[in-house]
Amino acid sequence: MKRDVSAIVVSHRSANEAVECVASLRESFGAERIAGEVVLVDCGSGEEDARRLREAQADRLVLLPENRGYSGGVNAGLARADAPLLLLSNADVLFSPGSLRFLLDAASRPDVGAAGPLCTWDGSGRLRLPAGFAPGFARDFLQLSTGRFRRLERRRFAAFARESLRLWREGGSVEHLTGAVLAARRDVFDRVGRFDERFLLEYEETEWEDRVRASGYELRYEPQARVRHLYARSSARSADSAGRRRSSRDLYLRRRYGRIGARLLDLATAFSRTVPVGRLDDPYVARREGAWIAISPNPSLVPFVGAPLDEDFRLPAETFASLPTGAYFRTFRASDGEPLETFRWEKAA
């Protein structure tokens, strides 16, 4: 049977999420009459996970003996996928029937190198995850030196907020797509190469997308395609996730900015200043006409998860595990992105 798309789902110690992800893909394939196959790749999670993953009834189950990271898992799946269209997915993703076709259609355009969907965080779909956050020396420096350049940071937040609302509403061309779900044609991989497996955790899609854009392709954000990303659940279970993340970050920064530039970014936090903010005793914000709420672990609030304040907002308990102890909340005007009030909520231990 000829397949339209090969979906590659990569799991590490996320068997339960992977089984649900595969089931949601099957439902989407059926509802949208898409001829698709599922290649499920596990990165060295052990026999207990392997037994659970066999219940997913993927078309192909690839059990790697070691944890090669998301990059290695994707590459192992690509080697076994047959279709001309490829869908790459974290295990902690649930696909929404009726929207997958929009993503595949976007990726099928000859000028598009990769396409990404709108990712929501909570079960209701109210909280939208950022479309992406493109690296850049000035952007990275400002994020790390929060509080030093207050006026510039305010303008930067407003610009990011305006662009986020536009992308969530209309979509369009972007400089970066988050790697939770990506759709791309096989010929794009043939041209720019596969993921670099030296990136053990994070930055693998960023480095690959740099190559995609350098080859003249567009990165396309498609909000009509929606998935739920159970953000940070799977990576939190990875052994030495902090070390892998740090190694990937250091490698990427050295490649992009050189050793001196990477070192300057390492020193940027020394320039940061404490920003006075209000305190939230409860992760609740009252309804405010024409405003949105931004939530981030970073005091710069860039990037952020966003939700409209067309009704009272309370952070869903299902998201608590993904947030660090201190999270920043900011209300802002939808019309121009201007910040209104900023608070910090200390999650109970």
Descriptive overview:
With 349 residues, this protein is of the alpha/beta class. The protein folds into two domains: 5-117 and 171-233, Alpha-Beta Complex (Spore Coat Polysaccharide Biosynthesis Protein SpsA, Chain A); 132-170 and 240-349, no CATH class. The chain has helices at residues 15-32, 47-54, 69-78, 100-108, 137-144, 150-170, 186-192, 204-214, 241-267; strands at residues 5-11, 36-43, 60-64, 85-90, 93-95, 112-120, 172-174, 181-185, 218-229, 278-280, 284-285, 291-296, 305-308, 313-314, 326-333, 339-346. A hairpin with an 8-residue loop joins strand 12 (291-296) and strand 13. Helix 5 (137-144) packs across helix 9. The termini are far apart. The relative contact order is 0.15.
* Strand arrangement across the biggest beta sheet: 3-2-1-4-8
Count of DSSP-assigned helices: 9
User: Strand count, sense and closure of the main sheet?
Assistant: 5 strands, mixed
Radius of gyration over all CA atoms, rounded: 20 Å
Beta-strand share of residues: 25-35%
- The CATH class of the largest domain turns out to be Alpha Beta
Q: Which architecture of the largest domain would the CATH scheme give at its second level?
A: Alpha-Beta Complex
Describe what is shown at a glance.
The protein is α/β, with parallel strands linked by helices and about 350 residues long. It is about 35% helix and about 25% strand. The protein has two domains: about 180 residues, Spore Coat Polysaccharide Biosynthesis Protein SpsA, Chain A (Alpha-Beta Complex), CATH 3.90.550.10; about 150 residues, no CATH class.
